[in-house]
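Bumping my old thread because nobody answered last time. Still need a sequence for this structure:
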Protein backbone atom coordinates (compact mmCIF):
# COMPACT_ATOMS: atom_id res chain seq x y z
CA UNK A 1 0.00 0.00 0.00
CA UNK A 2 1.06 3.57 -0.34
CA UNK A 3 1.90 5.29 2.90
CA UNK A 4 -1.12 3.85 4.56
CA UNK A 5 -1.49 6.82 6.73
CA UNK A 6 -5.15 7.07 7.38
CA UNK A 7 -5.30 8.31 10.91
CA UNK A 8 -8.68 7.95 12.54
CA UNK A 9 -8.50 11.64 13.29
CA UNK A 10 -8.32 12.50 9.60
CA UNK A 11 -9.25 10.84 6.36
CA UNK A 12 -5.75 10.11 5.15
CA UNK A 13 -4.40 6.74 4.02
CA UNK A 14 -1.74 4.87 5.98
CA UNK A 15 -2.15 1.74 8.10
CA UNK A 16 -0.99 1.61 11.70
CA UNK A 17 -0.36 -1.64 13.50
CA UNK A 18 -0.45 -2.79 17.08
CA UNK A 19 2.81 -4.07 18.57
CA UNK A 20 2.69 -7.13 16.35
CA UNK A 21 -0.10 -6.45 13.90
CA UNK A 22 -2.00 -3.93 11.83
CA UNK A 23 -5.37 -2.49 12.74
CA UNK A 24 -8.08 -3.08 10.13
CA UNK A 25 -10.19 0.01 9.59
CA UNK A 26 -13.00 0.98 7.29
CA UNK A 27 -12.13 1.66 4.60
CA UNK A 28 -9.46 -0.99 4.82
CA UNK A 29 -7.27 0.82 2.32
CA UNK A 30 -6.37 3.29 5.04
CA UNK A 31 -2.69 3.91 4.79
CA UNK A 32 -1.65 5.49 8.06
CA UNK A 33 -4.30 4.36 10.51
CA UNK A 34 -4.23 4.89 14.24
CA UNK A 35 -4.42 1.75 16.29
CA UNK A 36 -6.22 1.05 19.52
CA UNK A 37 -3.38 -0.45 21.54
CA UNK A 38 0.38 -0.54 21.65
CA UNK A 39 2.88 1.58 19.73
CA UNK A 40 1.50 2.98 16.50
CA UNK A 41 3.15 1.60 13.40
CA UNK A 42 3.07 2.95 9.86
CA UNK A 43 2.96 0.56 6.92
CA UNK A 44 4.08 1.74 3.52
CA UNK A 45 5.73 -0.36 0.84
CA UNK A 46 7.76 2.49 -0.61
CA UNK A 47 9.22 3.67 2.70
CA UNK A 48 9.80 0.15 4.02
CA UNK A 49 11.59 -0.90 0.84
CA UNK A 50 13.85 2.15 1.04
CA UNK A 51 14.76 1.42 4.67
CA UNK A 52 15.42 -2.23 3.81
CA UNK A 53 17.88 -1.10 1.15
CA UNK A 54 19.50 1.26 3.66
CA UNK A 55 20.00 -1.50 6.23
CA UNK A 56 20.99 -4.40 3.94
CA UNK A 57 24.71 -3.52 3.50
CA UNK A 58 25.01 -2.62 7.19
CA UNK A 59 23.49 -5.91 8.31
CA UNK A 60 25.78 -7.74 5.88
CA UNK A 61 28.83 -6.03 7.35
CA UNK A 62 27.59 -6.90 10.85
CA UNK A 63 27.05 -10.56 9.95
CA UNK A 64 23.31 -10.22 10.54
CA UNK A 65 22.08 -10.38 6.96
CA UNK A 66 20.40 -13.78 7.43
CA UNK A 67 18.69 -12.87 10.71
CA UNK A 68 15.56 -11.45 9.01
CA UNK A 69 15.82 -8.18 10.94
CA UNK A 70 12.93 -5.84 10.17
CA UNK A 71 12.77 -2.05 10.21
CA UNK A 72 9.48 -0.82 11.66
CA UNK A 73 8.28 2.78 11.18
CA UNK A 74 6.53 4.25 14.21
CA UNK A 75 3.88 6.95 14.01
CA UNK A 76 5.83 9.41 16.13
CA UNK A 77 7.02 12.83 14.98
CA UNK A 78 9.99 13.06 17.37
CA UNK A 79 13.41 11.99 16.20
CA UNK A 80 14.10 8.55 17.67
CA UNK A 81 15.21 5.03 16.81
CA UNK A 82 15.76 2.01 19.02
CA UNK A 83 15.91 -1.76 19.18
CA UNK A 84 13.64 -3.68 21.51
CA UNK A 85 13.57 -7.39 20.77
CA UNK A 86 16.73 -8.33 18.91
CA UNK A 87 15.04 -8.68 15.53
CA UNK A 88 13.49 -5.29 14.81
CA UNK A 89 14.80 -1.77 14.50
CA UNK A 90 12.13 0.82 15.29
CA UNK A 91 12.37 4.20 13.58
CA UNK A 92 10.05 7.14 14.18
CA UNK A 93 8.74 8.76 11.01
CA UNK A 94 10.13 11.95 12.54
CA UNK A 95 13.63 10.52 12.11
CA UNK A 96 12.94 10.17 8.39
CA UNK A 97 11.56 13.69 8.15
CA UNK A 98 14.53 15.21 10.01
CA UNK A 99 17.15 13.27 8.02
CA UNK A 100 17.83 15.43 4.99
CA UNK A 101 20.08 12.87 3.33
CA UNK A 102 20.00 9.08 3.12
CA UNK A 103 23.39 8.98 4.85
CA UNK A 104 21.98 10.65 7.96
CA UNK A 105 19.27 8.04 8.56
CA UNK A 106 21.67 5.28 7.46
CA UNK A 107 24.00 6.42 10.24
CA UNK A 108 21.20 6.03 12.78
CA UNK A 109 20.42 2.55 11.45
CA UNK A 110 24.11 1.66 11.69
CA UNK A 111 24.17 2.73 15.35
CA UNK A 112 21.11 0.60 16.14
CA UNK A 113 22.67 -2.32 14.27
CA UNK A 114 25.62 -1.90 16.61
CA UNK A 115 23.28 -2.62 19.51
CA UNK A 116 21.98 -5.74 17.77
CA UNK A 117 25.42 -7.02 16.81
CA UNK A 118 26.69 -6.43 20.34
CA UNK A 119 23.84 -8.40 21.90
CA UNK A 120 23.15 -5.39 24.10
CA UNK A 121 19.53 -6.32 24.81
CA UNK A 122 20.40 -9.74 26.20
CA UNK A 123 23.32 -8.30 28.16
CA UNK A 124 21.11 -5.57 29.61
CA UNK A 125 18.54 -8.15 30.72
CA UNK A 126 21.33 -10.06 32.42
CA UNK A 127 22.59 -6.88 34.05
CA UNK A 128 19.07 -6.02 35.23
CA UNK A 129 18.67 -9.51 36.66
CA UNK A 130 21.88 -9.12 38.63
CA UNK A 131 20.77 -5.70 39.82
CA UNK A 132 17.46 -7.09 41.03
CA UNK A 133 19.27 -9.77 43.04
CA UNK A 134 21.57 -7.19 44.57
CA UNK A 135 18.65 -4.90 45.34
CA UNK A 136 16.66 -7.68 46.98
CA UNK A 137 19.61 -8.57 49.23
CA UNK A 138 20.18 -4.93 50.10
CA UNK A 139 16.52 -4.39 50.91
CA UNK A 140 16.38 -7.51 53.10
CA UNK A 141 19.50 -6.46 55.01
CA UNK A 142 18.20 -2.93 55.38
CA UNK A 143 14.75 -4.07 56.46
CA UNK A 144 16.34 -6.34 59.05
CA UNK A 145 18.23 -3.42 60.55
CA UNK A 146 15.07 -1.29 60.61
CA UNK A 147 13.10 -4.02 62.39
CA UNK A 148 15.87 -4.50 64.95
CA UNK A 149 15.91 -0.76 65.60
CA UNK A 150 12.14 -0.60 65.99
CA UNK A 151 12.10 -3.51 68.45
CA UNK A 152 14.81 -1.93 70.55
CA UNK A 153 12.84 1.28 71.04
CA UNK A 154 14.21 4.81 70.84
CA UNK A 155 17.62 3.73 72.08
CA UNK A 156 18.08 1.90 68.77
CA UNK A 157 16.80 4.66 66.51
CA UNK A 158 20.27 4.94 65.02
CA UNK A 159 20.05 1.32 63.97
CA UNK A 160 16.71 1.97 62.32
CA UNK A 161 18.13 4.96 60.46
CA UNK A 162 21.08 2.85 59.40
CA UNK A 163 18.61 0.30 58.06
CA UNK A 164 16.89 2.94 55.94
CA UNK A 165 20.27 4.05 54.63
CA UNK A 166 21.15 0.43 53.88
CA UNK A 167 18.12 0.29 51.61
CA UNK A 168 18.60 3.60 49.78
CA UNK A 169 22.39 3.54 49.37
CA UNK A 170 22.64 0.24 47.45
CA UNK A 171 19.69 1.27 45.26
CA UNK A 172 21.53 4.44 44.27
CA UNK A 173 24.74 2.51 43.66
CA UNK A 174 22.91 -0.05 41.53
CA UNK A 175 21.18 2.70 39.55
CA UNK A 176 24.49 4.38 38.81
CA UNK A 177 25.99 1.03 37.80
CA UNK A 178 23.17 0.35 35.35
CA UNK A 179 23.30 3.84 33.86
CA UNK A 180 27.07 3.53 33.43
CA UNK A 181 26.51 0.22 31.68
CA UNK A 182 24.01 1.81 29.27
CA UNK A 183 26.47 4.63 28.51
CA UNK A 184 29.10 2.06 27.66
CA UNK A 185 26.68 0.27 25.35
CA UNK A 186 25.95 3.52 23.51
CA UNK A 187 29.64 4.18 23.02
CA UNK A 188 30.14 0.63 21.77
CA UNK A 189 27.20 1.02 19.34
CA UNK A 190 28.75 4.23 17.98
CA UNK A 191 32.04 2.47 17.31
CA UNK A 192 30.33 -0.56 15.78
CA UNK A 193 28.15 1.65 13.59
CA UNK A 194 31.16 3.45 12.14
CA UNK A 195 32.87 0.11 11.59
CA UNK A 196 29.87 -1.27 9.66
CA UNK A 197 29.57 1.87 7.55
CA UNK A 198 33.25 1.76 6.65
CA UNK A 199 33.10 -1.96 5.86
CA UNK A 200 30.16 -1.33 3.50
CA UNK A 201 31.92 1.57 1.76
CA UNK A 202 29.70 4.28 3.26
CA UNK A 203 30.44 7.53 5.02
CA UNK A 204 29.89 7.94 8.75
CA UNK A 205 29.49 11.67 8.23
CA UNK A 206 25.70 11.51 8.34
CA UNK A 207 25.81 9.67 11.66
CA UNK A 208 28.12 12.34 13.07
CA UNK A 209 25.99 15.20 11.68
CA UNK A 210 22.83 13.74 13.19
CA UNK A 211 24.30 13.19 16.64
CA UNK A 212 26.02 16.57 16.59
CA UNK A 213 22.74 18.31 15.77
CA UNK A 214 20.99 16.74 18.70
CA UNK A 215 24.01 17.17 20.91
CA UNK A 216 23.86 20.92 20.33
CA UNK A 217 20.20 20.89 21.31
CA UNK A 218 21.04 18.98 24.49
CA UNK A 219 24.06 21.01 25.59
CA UNK A 220 22.06 23.55 27.54
CA UNK A 221 19.96 20.88 29.24
CA UNK A 222 23.08 18.89 30.12
CA UNK A 223 24.94 21.87 31.64
CA UNK A 224 25.87 21.04 35.21
CA UNK A 225 24.49 17.50 34.97
CA UNK A 226 26.16 14.68 36.88
CA UNK A 227 28.00 12.67 34.16
CA UNK A 228 27.56 9.51 36.21
CA UNK A 229 23.77 9.83 36.05
CA UNK A 230 23.50 10.18 32.27
CA UNK A 231 22.17 7.14 30.40
CA UNK A 232 24.05 8.26 27.27
CA UNK A 233 27.63 9.59 27.12
CA UNK A 234 27.88 13.29 27.91
CA UNK A 235 27.11 15.17 24.65
CA UNK A 236 30.43 16.93 24.04
CA UNK A 237 32.45 13.83 24.83
CA UNK A 238 30.31 11.59 22.66
CA UNK A 239 30.27 13.83 19.61
CA UNK A 240 34.02 14.42 19.85
CA UNK A 241 34.75 10.69 20.01
CA UNK A 242 32.34 10.02 17.16
CA UNK A 243 33.84 12.75 14.99
CA UNK A 244 37.32 11.30 15.44
CA UNK A 245 36.06 7.85 14.47
CA UNK A 246 34.02 9.07 11.51
CA UNK A 247 36.80 11.25 10.05
CA UNK A 248 39.20 8.32 10.17
CA UNK A 249 37.12 6.54 7.54
CA UNK A 250 38.35 6.78 3.92
CA UNK A 251 34.71 7.36 2.93
CA UNK A 252 34.19 10.51 5.05
CA UNK A 253 33.60 12.73 2.00
CA UNK A 254 31.57 10.20 0.00
CA UNK A 255 28.21 11.64 -1.10
CA UNK A 256 24.88 9.88 -1.51
CA UNK A 257 23.98 8.79 -5.02
CA UNK A 258 21.66 11.33 -6.69
CA UNK A 259 19.05 8.68 -7.52
CA UNK A 260 19.02 7.48 -3.91
CA UNK A 261 18.72 11.06 -2.67
CA UNK A 262 15.68 11.53 -4.90
CA UNK A 263 14.02 8.37 -3.53
CA UNK A 264 14.73 9.61 -0.01
CA UNK A 265 13.17 12.98 -0.82
CA UNK A 266 10.12 11.26 -2.34
CA UNK A 267 9.57 9.14 0.75
CA UNK A 268 9.83 12.21 2.97
CA UNK A 269 7.35 14.09 0.76
CA UNK A 270 4.89 11.20 1.04
CA UNK A 271 5.23 11.01 4.81
CA UNK A 272 4.72 14.74 5.10
CA UNK A 273 1.60 14.65 2.92
CA UNK A 274 0.01 11.85 4.92
CA UNK A 275 1.17 12.74 8.41
CA UNK A 276 1.52 16.50 8.70
CA UNK A 277 -0.95 19.35 8.72
CA UNK A 278 -1.69 21.02 5.41
CA UNK A 279 -0.08 24.30 6.45
CA UNK A 280 3.07 22.44 7.48
CA UNK A 281 3.08 20.48 4.23
CA UNK A 282 2.76 23.58 2.06
CA UNK A 283 5.53 25.33 3.97
CA UNK A 284 7.79 22.39 3.22
CA UNK A 285 6.55 22.03 -0.36
CA UNK A 286 5.12 25.38 -1.53
CA UNK A 287 2.78 25.42 -4.52
CA UNK A 288 5.39 27.41 -6.39
CA UNK A 289 7.79 24.45 -6.24
CA UNK A 290 7.77 22.16 -9.27
CA UNK A 291 10.22 19.54 -8.01
CA UNK A 292 9.15 15.90 -8.20
CA UNK A 293 8.89 15.52 -4.39
CA UNK A 294 6.76 18.67 -4.24
CA UNK A 295 4.44 17.42 -6.98
CA UNK A 296 4.15 14.07 -5.18
CA UNK A 297 3.23 15.79 -1.92
CA UNK A 298 0.71 18.07 -3.66
CA UNK A 299 -1.00 15.15 -5.47
CA UNK A 300 -1.40 13.20 -2.23
CA UNK A 301 -2.68 16.21 -0.32
CA UNK A 302 -5.18 17.00 -3.09
CA UNK A 303 -6.67 13.50 -3.05
CA UNK A 304 -6.71 13.32 0.75
CA UNK A 305 -8.72 16.49 0.98
CA UNK A 306 -11.43 15.47 -1.41
CA UNK A 307 -10.58 16.77 -4.88
CA UNK A 308 -10.30 13.41 -6.66
CA UNK A 309 -10.50 14.78 -10.20
CA UNK A 310 -7.67 17.27 -9.69
CA UNK A 311 -5.63 14.66 -7.82
CA UNK A 312 -5.91 12.19 -10.70
CA UNK A 313 -4.66 14.81 -13.15
CA UNK A 314 -1.66 15.43 -10.91
CA UNK A 315 -0.98 11.72 -10.42
CA UNK A 316 -1.21 11.10 -14.17
CA UNK A 317 1.40 13.81 -14.62
CA UNK A 318 3.69 11.94 -12.25
CA UNK A 319 3.11 8.67 -14.12
CA UNK A 320 4.05 10.37 -17.40
CA UNK A 321 7.37 11.37 -15.85
CA UNK A 322 8.07 7.93 -14.33
CA UNK A 323 5.81 5.33 -15.98
CA UNK A 324 7.58 2.45 -14.21
CA UNK A 325 7.25 3.87 -10.70
CA UNK A 326 4.94 1.37 -8.92
CA UNK A 327 4.04 3.82 -6.17
CA UNK A 328 2.52 6.35 -8.57
CA UNK A 329 0.22 3.64 -9.96
CA UNK A 330 -0.53 2.51 -6.42
CA UNK A 331 -1.44 6.07 -5.45
CA UNK A 332 -3.79 6.34 -8.43
CA UNK A 333 -5.50 3.08 -7.49
CA UNK A 334 -5.76 4.04 -3.85
CA UNK A 335 -7.24 7.44 -4.68
CA UNK A 336 -9.87 5.81 -6.93
CA UNK A 337 -10.64 3.11 -4.37
CA UNK A 338 -11.12 5.56 -1.54
CA UNK A 339 -13.01 7.84 -3.90
CA UNK A 340 -15.66 5.11 -4.28
CA UNK A 341 -14.48 3.82 -7.67
CA UNK A 342 -13.11 0.31 -6.94
CA UNK A 343 -13.64 -0.98 -10.51
CA UNK A 344 -11.50 1.85 -11.91
CA UNK A 345 -8.88 1.21 -9.24
CA UNK A 346 -8.19 -2.34 -10.43
CA UNK A 347 -6.10 -1.49 -13.51
CA UNK A 348 -3.61 0.87 -11.81
CA UNK A 349 -3.32 -1.48 -8.84
CA UNK A 350 -2.59 -4.43 -11.14
CA UNK A 351 0.18 -2.32 -12.67
CA UNK A 352 1.50 -1.40 -9.23
CA UNK A 353 1.58 -5.06 -8.16
CA UNK A 354 3.45 -5.99 -11.34
CA UNK A 355 6.00 -3.18 -11.04
CA UNK A 356 6.57 -3.76 -7.32
CA UNK A 357 7.31 -7.46 -7.80
CA UNK A 358 4.08 -8.46 -6.05
CA UNK A 359 4.49 -6.39 -2.90
CA UNK A 360 1.99 -7.94 -0.44
CA UNK A 361 0.60 -4.67 0.94
CA UNK A 362 -0.18 -3.53 -2.61
CA UNK A 363 -1.68 -6.96 -3.38
CA UNK A 364 -4.01 -6.44 -0.42
CA UNK A 365 -5.11 -3.13 -1.87
CA UNK A 366 -5.79 -4.81 -5.21
CA UNK A 367 -7.71 -7.56 -3.43
CA UNK A 368 -9.79 -4.91 -1.71
CA UNK A 369 -10.59 -3.28 -5.06
CA UNK A 370 -11.64 -6.64 -6.54
CA UNK A 371 -13.89 -7.34 -3.54
CA UNK A 372 -15.21 -3.78 -3.56
CA UNK A 373 -16.66 -4.07 -7.05
CA UNK A 374 -19.29 -6.60 -5.84
CA UNK A 375 -18.66 -8.39 -9.14
CA UNK A 376 -18.63 -12.10 -8.28
CA UNK A 377 -16.48 -12.80 -11.34
CA UNK A 378 -13.57 -11.31 -9.38
CA UNK A 379 -14.11 -13.43 -6.27
CA UNK A 380 -11.73 -16.30 -7.02
CA UNK A 381 -9.01 -13.91 -8.20
CA UNK A 382 -9.40 -11.84 -5.05
CA UNK A 383 -9.08 -14.96 -2.87
CA UNK A 384 -5.98 -16.10 -4.74
CA UNK A 385 -4.27 -12.71 -4.50
CA UNK A 386 -5.18 -12.17 -0.85
CA UNK A 387 -4.09 -15.65 0.22
CA UNK A 388 -0.70 -15.06 -1.40
CA UNK A 389 -0.43 -11.65 0.29
CA UNK A 390 -1.24 -12.82 3.84
CA UNK A 391 1.15 -15.75 3.45
CA UNK A 392 4.01 -13.27 3.01
CA UNK A 393 2.68 -10.43 5.15
CA UNK A 394 1.36 -12.26 8.20
CA UNK A 395 0.80 -9.30 10.53
CA UNK A 396 -1.68 -7.24 8.50
CA UNK A 397 -5.33 -7.84 9.45
CA UNK A 398 -6.41 -5.84 6.41
CA UNK A 399 -5.61 -8.80 4.19
CA UNK A 400 -7.57 -11.22 6.37
CA UNK A 401 -10.55 -8.84 6.56
CA UNK A 402 -10.77 -8.65 2.77
CA UNK A 403 -10.21 -12.39 2.49
CA UNK A 404 -13.15 -12.97 4.83
CA UNK A 405 -15.37 -10.80 2.63
CA UNK A 406 -14.29 -12.68 -0.50
CA UNK A 407 -14.97 -16.06 1.11
CA UNK A 408 -18.34 -14.82 2.33
CA UNK A 409 -19.27 -13.77 -1.18
CA UNK A 410 -18.30 -17.23 -2.36
CA UNK A 411 -20.47 -18.82 0.33
CA UNK A 412 -17.50 -20.49 2.07
CA UNK A 413 -18.49 -19.45 5.59
CA UNK A 414 -15.99 -21.69 7.36
CA UNK A 415 -13.06 -19.93 5.67
CA UNK A 416 -14.80 -16.57 6.11
CA UNK A 417 -15.10 -17.11 9.87
CA UNK A 418 -11.49 -18.27 10.10
CA UNK A 419 -10.17 -15.24 8.19
CA UNK A 420 -12.30 -12.92 10.35
CA UNK A 421 -10.93 -14.60 13.47
CA UNK A 422 -7.36 -14.12 12.23
CA UNK A 423 -8.03 -10.43 11.55
CA UNK A 424 -9.56 -9.94 15.01
CA UNK A 425 -6.63 -11.70 16.68
CA UNK A 426 -4.12 -9.47 14.91
CA UNK A 427 -6.12 -6.38 15.93
CA UNK A 428 -5.85 -7.51 19.55
CA UNK A 429 -9.60 -8.26 19.87
CA UNK A 430 -9.04 -11.65 21.44
CA UNK A 431 -12.63 -12.15 22.61
CA UNK A 432 -14.03 -11.73 19.09
CA UNK A 433 -11.20 -13.83 17.65
CA UNK A 434 -12.03 -16.74 19.95
CA UNK A 435 -15.74 -16.49 19.24
CA UNK A 436 -15.24 -16.49 15.47
CA UNK A 437 -12.65 -19.25 15.63
CA UNK A 438 -14.98 -21.39 17.76
CA UNK A 439 -17.71 -20.96 15.18
CA UNK A 440 -15.27 -21.77 12.38
CA UNK A 441 -14.37 -25.03 14.12
CA UNK A 442 -18.00 -26.16 13.91
CA UNK A 443 -17.95 -25.57 10.14
CA UNK A 444 -14.69 -27.43 9.40
CA UNK A 445 -14.24 -31.18 9.57
CA UNK A 446 -12.29 -32.11 12.71
CA UNK A 447 -8.56 -32.34 12.05
CA UNK A 448 -8.55 -30.48 8.74
CA UNK A 449 -6.06 -27.59 8.30
CA UNK A 450 -8.81 -25.00 8.75
CA UNK A 451 -10.02 -26.67 11.97
CA UNK A 452 -6.46 -26.79 13.33
CA UNK A 453 -5.88 -23.09 12.59
CA UNK A 454 -9.17 -22.16 14.26
CA UNK A 455 -8.32 -24.31 17.27
CA UNK A 456 -4.94 -22.56 17.54
CA UNK A 457 -6.70 -19.20 17.76
CA UNK A 458 -9.11 -20.45 20.41
CA UNK A 459 -6.17 -21.63 22.52
CA UNK A 460 -3.81 -18.76 21.69
CA UNK A 461 -2.46 -16.31 24.18
CA UNK A 462 -2.63 -12.57 23.44
CA UNK A 463 0.12 -11.14 21.25
CA UNK A 464 2.86 -9.11 22.99
CA UNK A 465 1.46 -5.80 24.16
CA UNK A 466 -2.12 -7.08 24.15
CA UNK A 467 -4.35 -8.01 27.03
CA UNK A 468 -6.75 -10.88 27.24
CA UNK A 469 -10.42 -9.92 27.08
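Sorry it took so long. Here it is:
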Amino acid sequence: MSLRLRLLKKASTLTTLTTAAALALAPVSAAFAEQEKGPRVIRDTESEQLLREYTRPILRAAGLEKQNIQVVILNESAFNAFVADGRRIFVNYGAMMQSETPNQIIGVLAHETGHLAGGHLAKMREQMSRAQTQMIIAMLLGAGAMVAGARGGSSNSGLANAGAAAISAPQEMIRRTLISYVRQQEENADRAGVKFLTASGQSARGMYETFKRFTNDALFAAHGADPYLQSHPMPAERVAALEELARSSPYWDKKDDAALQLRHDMARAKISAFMERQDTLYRRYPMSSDTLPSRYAHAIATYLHGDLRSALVQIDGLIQLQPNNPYFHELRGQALLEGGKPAEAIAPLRKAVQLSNNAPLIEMLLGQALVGTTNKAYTEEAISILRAAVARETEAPIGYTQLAMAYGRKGDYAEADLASAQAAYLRGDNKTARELASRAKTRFAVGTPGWVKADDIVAARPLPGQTSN
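The first strand starts at residue 15 and ends at 17. Let me know if any region looks off to you.
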